[in-house]
Specification:
Residues 22-113 form the CopC domain. Keywords: Copper, Membrane, Metal-binding, Signal, Transmembrane, Transmembrane helix. This protein is an alpha+beta fold and 191 residues long. It is built from 3 helices and 9 strands, in the order αβββββββββαα. A 5-stranded mixed sheet has the order 2-9-8-4-5. A hairpin with a 4-residue loop joins strand 4 and strand 5 (65-66). The two termini are 14 Å apart. Residues 16-20 and 146-163 have low confidence and may be disordered.
Length: 191
């Protein structure tokens, strides 16, 4: 009987530690919902725990999927290098990792590239064409405030994922404490 109780105690103490082995995204460059105003040639993701080789990420804008020139995976970091700087637009990075404990995890990061273009002296004709194009883009593109509002729920999802891991750990810890109190009560009653 004592061996069974000891085995249950060991299992209950080990279970919360196995939950902590999951890696969650701790930071990214660019950050979720960020507006990037400088040329961007790499995406950097940092995780709260170890990640394994075989972890990957992809990037797409509103129109197409883009290719990373190279994706480097180290202990807690994944860096995707682009062959050229990203043009203006909204991008989604989708990541899929294998955490140190072997569990697959995935998520997304939404950000916007908005660099000021270098203006060259142009003829009046070109200025009129440009004004017409800008009016057409203003009609078809959502307002910057609308894009930021869409990014906020994404950031909340990432926070929820991190909060859920701690909640599970807390609940398992509480269950272990209740089990130990119950077992102690059984031993005291038998004596």
């Amino acid at each position: 009987m004592k061996k069974i109780i000891l085995l249950l105690v060991v299992i209950c103490l080990w279970a919360p530690l196995s939950v902590l082995g999951h890696s969650s995204l701790s930071s990214s460059t660019p950050a979720e919902g960020e507006r990037v105003e400088q040329p961007l040639e790499e995406i950097r993701l940092e995780f709260g725990g170890g990640i394994e080789q075989g972890s990957t990420m992809s990037i797409k804008n509103e129109e197409e999927s883009l290719e990373f020139e190279d994706i480097a995976v180290s202990e807690q970091e994944m860096v995707g290098t682009l062959s050229e700087a990203l043009p203006n637009g909204t991008y989604t990075v989708t990541w899929e990792i294998i955490s140190a404990d072997g569990h697959p995890l995935s998520g997304e990061i939404l950000f916007e590239v908005e660099q000021e273009s270098v203006e060259e002296p142009v003829a009046e004709e070109r200025v009129e064409d440009q004004a017409t194009e800008e009016e057409e883009e203003a009609v078809s593109d959502p307002q910057p405030g609308e894009e930021q509002e869409a990014a906020i729920p994404e950031a909340a999802d990432a926070s929820e994922e991190s909060g859920t891991n701690w909640l599970v750990t807390l609940l398992i810890g509480a269950a272990v404490i209740l089990l130990l109190i119950s077992l102690y009560g059984l031993f005291v009653k038998k004596r």
